[in-house]
Records
---
Amino acid sequence: MARMKALSASAFLLFIGLSAGLGRGAEPAGTVVFAHGMGVPYRLYEELSPVRRVFEERGYRFLVARTPTAGTLEGRAEALAREVRRLVPEGLYHLVGHSMGGLDARLAIHAYDLGDRCRSLTTLATPHHGSALADFVVKTYDETLEVPQGISDVLAMLGGDIREVRQLTTARLKEFNREVKNDPRVDYYSVGFRIPRPVEAYAAIPVMWIAQRLHAAVDSPENDGPVSVESSKWGTYMGTIEGDHWSETAPIPFGGRLIYLDVFGEVAGHLRRADRRRDR
């Protein structure tokens, strides 16, 4: 991608997509199950046929897990495990999770033994080490028992329920990471995102400007609004892409263009290359 930053030459070569020769007629390479983030309806991705096409062109069947738009990590992980078994009753598959969907997937693999058939988990802008922005919102709420205007918009972007936002704080994710271990049968990959400054020149939605600035003010200048680059790193880190939290996986302009198909294209290409190496 033209806006991709901080990728070494070797990581970039590993992460690029397949050649145009792999079309819809190619033999299916496998199945990808997508886990969406908090506050996002699964229908957004089910009805985005271009996303499905991106994976199909690389030989993958693309399925969307119908998990709740809100809820605790425990509840969402249980729902994800149930969905995986419904969507892929047999055979191997890959998981791809955006934002909290990546945490849901990690917990589902750990708690429901999904590693018996799950080949990999790729997380996009997932707050593996917590969100300093969530810390700020929770601290503000606990001190005032309310969320001031402006911060309330950020809370809504994080899901709207202060109880759920507490699960995204750095303190809670430290506990989560001690409890939820990687499954040795599963390959873990991650991608981070950042908004270049000035944020107004790139992100189309004003609440993202507030989130990016608040996050930067609490010592995380490299962030996509809710999630910092450092917090996004888990397993094999594939690099950092310029984008905001909503434009990464949805048709919302970033810097005057749409990037979500590029993001999914790079994920699909990487999975195909990884599968080829693994199957040799």
Note: The longest helix spans residues 260-279.
---
Amino acid sequence: MRDIAGLLNLVINFLSLAIIASVVISWLRAFGMRVSYSHPVVRIIEETADLVLKPIRRAISTAGGGLDFSPFIAILLLQIARTLISKLF
């Protein structure tokens, strides 16, 4: 059982880091840096983050001014899942 909890914790860490990296990449693009969509690392980061972010973005609308709260909500939900997993195992 501990192995399952460890694996789930690893997946949660990986998803959280991918979301944070995706946010940083979007900020870099917003400030005029050229970050290629076709770079393999960027593509993996964004596709991994989108696994979690797309359902949240569909469920909530964008706030005024184009603010996207889906990364915050996703990381919050992942941390709640981590807490529940730690209590179960």
Note: The mean pLDDT is 91.
---
Amino acid sequence: MPEAETWEQYRDERCRRVEKMLGFPVKNKERLISAILSNALLNEPGHFPQLEEIGTDPGLETKGDFVLDFAIFRSLRTQ
């Protein structure tokens, strides 16, 4: 089971990390998670059922990769 006790805690913590790296808030947290969610994660035991409900969005995969790349590069640049 993930370290968070509830889905909301899990979702908010993951989004908070990305928002911190991006430098701005994300309005639709489920959409962000869908963009960065890996199919491999859905095959792992112990995840929240909401992850399956959100699922992955093939149309967002490239955008999700871009968001992560941007956040990582921005984070490294400010260190």
Note: Residues 21 and 72 are 7 Å apart (CA to CA).
---
Amino acid sequence: MLLDLNIPRPDGLEIAQFIRERFATLPVIIISGYPDMIDRVNQADLKAIVRLVVMKPIKPQVLIDYVLAGGDCIRNHAAPAD
């Protein structure tokens, strides 16, 4: 999932915490314009799901390279059983 943490309520941190609680294997890529985002991710205890933090402005090639290099993305995870 691509997620910007600075969005209106529920904000991105709340959404990321929901993902961590309900979909713990869903990898998240954070998109941010704030240089302290890695600290915020660590403080919110989201390291388990956040695989990459990409700074704005986004260079699409960074995401492409990450996926092509075998980065932890949704294609690497089996669909959850109901």
Note: Helices lie at 12-22, 37-43, 60-68.
